[in-house]
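User: I'm curious whether this sequence folds into something compact or stays loose and floppy. Could you predict its structure so I can see for myself?
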Amino acid sequence: MLLSLFGQPDPDSTLVNAARGGDVRAFDALVHRYHGRVRQFVRSRLDSAIDSDDVIQDVFVSAWKELPGFRGRSRFKTWLFGIALHRCADAWRKHQRLRALLGEMEVPFDSWPEDTWGDNPEGWPAAVIERTELRRHLGRLSEAERQVLELYYYAELNMPEISALLEINLSTLKYRFYQAHRNLRRHLEEPVESPVGAPASRARK
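Assistant: Here's the prediction. I'll summarize afterward.
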């Protein structure tokens, strides 16, 4: 049986073992289980000009090809989102190269691209993260900060899983998580520009 972090059984182990043996139906069941979360995560990380559906397909094709080498040192879910991170980075680099060939100016993006907030950031509901304004401000964070928030809210990985995926000490990761929320809140509270370029305060109820 495949083991996850801290020796706990991976809930996907039965399907993973069958898929590793060539059972396509077992892998299809894994795709069905995680497609929605992978789709949400990929779309959160990529510019709208990039075809996210192609990237999502590439994630699962890569997972199928690489599955024989999966040794269960992490949960299948964590491993799968590791692949998603790499495929998103590949797609972003390809997009940037294409834009350079076409002579377009690059749009600055941190590294590759009435609310009352509670004091506990882990208490923020995932639905809040889906809001358009908040997603826009995520792009203003550093890549490291943006990455941990998107893995937590979009991929729905927990802290130990993200720590294993990114190979970051859990205490360091928790501090980064806190800093990311603090910086995101600061961006949200900044005045927004009016249509004519003059600063305008955020409307409050």
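Summary: The domain at 114-205 is CATH 1.10.10.10 (Arc Repressor Mutant, subunit A). The longest strand covers residues 192-193.
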